[in-house]
Structure formats: structure tokens, C-alpha cells
Amino acid sequence: MKKRNYLIAIITGIIVGIITVIGQKYLSGNLNFLVNSASMWLIPTFFIPYFLKTDSKDSIIISMTILIFCVLGYYIFEAIIHSHTFEFSTSVILWLLCAIAGGIVFGLGANYSRTKNDKLKLLSMNLLPAVFLSEPLYKLINISAYSNVILDIIVQIIIGLILYGIINFKESHKLKNILSCIFLTVLGILGFFTLSALSKIL
User: Of 34, 49, 74, 82, which sits 20 to 30 A from 42 (CA to CA)?
Assistant: First the structure.
């Protein structure tokens, strides 16, 4: 069973990475954010271990595996279609480190979304909508650099709000749910600032 789960994770990661490269080549304008958004890679990273109902350790491994192979699939396929040599550049290493960190967070999130601990469950359930909200809000804070993608930002915020409504459903209006999402969104914004700073250093 575990081997099958890991195989699913590897195949998913490779496919998502390849689709990202293809999307960047052929999608333009207002649809480009669909393949240039870090949030999109986190959808399978969260839902696959969630629906496989794995324990916390396996959830983390599966999530990390998906993201690691998203990165490898992306950079290797990008090298192939642009006819250049693949190498472990600082960008690849940075994104692999992000894949490990993201895999831990979203793997645990997928697992704890099924826990009976209300606080952990609430935080875990709101991870995904928070990411979809934090990325466009980060861009709004740095609007001078993203003024050409304002429609993308609006669409991402709408997707984040829809995800929040779907996941929290009848409890969407409750203060604890709203505060949980706001808290995670703020953390996400700080995360994007950190990632931006690291990418400039490296």
C-alpha cells in the first residue's frame, strides 16, 4: 500500500511539473497565474495525503515527494524543451528546500485535518485557502512590481475566499474560523517575503 502511495506521489509531482512548463509556454495574459503560482502546486500536496488517509509520517513523506518531483519535473522538462543542460543551480536547490518545508507543513496539515483536536483541525483545514490569499496579498503589498497582473491578483483572492467557504462551509461565519484563516494568511505573507529575500541572496 505504501509503495503505491509513493508511486502516486512521484507520478503526480512529475506531471504537475511538466504541466507547469507547458502552461508557461502556452498560457498568457490572465490565465498565466495558474502556472506561475506556488499555490497551485500545494493543491495535490494537501489533498492526495488527505484522501489517502495516511498517518502523519506518511503524509509528510508523500507531500514532500510530490513537491520534490514537481521541482525536478519542472526543471528537467524545462531543460529538455529549451535544449540546455539540467544542473542543480541555486534556484533548483532553493525550491527543493521549499519543497521539503512545504511538504512537512502540508503533510501534517492533511493529516491533522482529520484529527479530533479542534484547534489543530481548524488550522490545518485553513492552510490551503490561506496560501491562496497570502500570495495575492503579498503581491498587493508589492504592487509596484505586480501592477501588470492586477486581474490575476483579484482572481486568486476570489479563489482563496471560495476555498475558505467550501472548506469551512456552515462554520465560515464563525470568528474562530475567520481568525484561523487570517492568522495563517499573515504567516503566508511573511513566508513569501522570506522566499523573496532568499531568492535575491542566492
Answer: 82
